[in-house]
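We both want to read C-alpha cells more fluently, so let's practise on a single case. Would you write everything just below, so we can both look at the same thing?
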Amino acid sequence: MVRLFNQTQRLLERVGRRVPSFARAEVSLLEAARKATGLDDFGDMSFLNALRVLLPAYDEEARLSPFGRMMVNQELAGILKSRLCTEHAWKQRPEVLEASIHRPIFILGLPRSGTTALHHLLAQDPGNQVLEYWLGAAPGARPPRGEWADDPRYKQAVRGLRTMYYLDPSLKAIHMMTAEGPDECRHLFLQSFLDHTFDHNATIASYTKWFERQDMRPAYARHRDILKLIGSGQPERRWVLKYPAHMRNLRVLLEIYPDACIVQTHRDPARVLPSVCSLVAGWRGLYEDGVDSHTIGRWQLDFLSEMIEEAMRVREVSKPEQFHDLHFQELVKDPVGALRRMYEYFGFELSAEAERRMQIWHRENPQGKHGGHSYTAEQFGLSQAEMRERFRRYSERFQVTSES
C-alpha cells in the first residue's frame, strides 16, 4: 500500500505535478479544521507563530516521502481539530477550569530507563488516572469505559496505531502503544505546536533551534487545563503523567504544578542512548527517505545530555522532598516493592487492590513480550567512551552503574 502510494506520487511529480507547499497551505489547513468540526474558535492565535516556523521547515529541510507527507498532513489536521474541540469544550463547561490538580506524579528519566513500565504499573492503581493515548490525541472529558469502543476518536486512534505497526512491526518491540493504554503527555503540547514530536519524525533543524528558545509557560498552562477537562468526571483521582522531555522544562513544570511529585528513573546512559537512537530512526523511517543514523546519534547525544544537565541544575535549587529516585535495576528486580517505597516516600496510600493489579500487570507483561530489539552503538556513530564522558556528572551524582 505504502509503496504503491509513493510510486504513484513520484510518477505524478515526474510528469510535472508540483509537490504542494506546507507553508502555502496554512490558510487551507485552518479552514479545513473549521469545516470538519463546525467550530471556528482556535483560542489564543499565538500558536500560529510556531506553525509558521514548522511548515516552512517541512518544505525546505525535511526529506519526507510521499507517504510521509500524507501522514504529516493528517497529523496537522488532527491537531488543529483537537485544538478547536478543546476550546469549545472549555466554553461549554468553564467550571472545569476552576478545578485543581493536586500533587500529580510526573515520571521523568532518560527514555528506555523503565519509564514506560513504571507508567503502566501506576496506571493499575484505581486511585490514579493516566492520559490514555486516544484522549491525548483528541482531548475531551473522559467518558465511561464501556463507551470507548463506539467513540469515533477511539476508533481513529486504533486505526492509526494499527497502520503504524503494520508499516514497521519492529516498532512494537521498541515501544508498544495501545489506544486505551497510558501514553506520554507530549500530545497536549502538540496543540501549541511546541514539541519534539515534530523533529523526531522529520529532519527540521530550523524548527528545533527555534523551538528550544521558546517560553514554554503558555504551553504548560494549556497542558494543565486540558488535563482538567479530561479528568473532569473524577477530579479527585491523582494524575500520573510521563514524558522524558519534561526534564528540559523542569523549571516551568514546577511553576505550573508547584506541588508535583517527581519520580526520576535512572539507567546507564551508554545502554540507553543507542536504544533511543534506534527508536528515533524507526519513527523517522516511517516519514522520511534516507534516514541518517549518524546524524541521529550525534543529535540525541547532545539533546539527552543537555536535558539531563538542565534537570540536575533545577533539582539543585528545588525542594528535595518533591523528588524520588528510582533505579532501573530496582524496578526490574522488585517493581511492586519499588512502588511501595515510592508511595511511602510521598505519603500516598497503596491499597491492596492496587498492589494486586500491579502484580498481575507485571506478570502478564514480561520484558521482551513483543520481541527483541536489535541495535548497536556503532551504527549511530557512538562510542562507549564518549557516552560515558558526556553523562559522567549525571552518573556520579545518582550512582548510576554501567551495564554489561
Residues 4-9, 11-16 have pLDDT under 50 and may be disordered. The chain has 20 helices and five strands. The beta strands are 105-109, 128-130, 238-242, 261-266, 323-327. The longest helix spans residues 66-92.
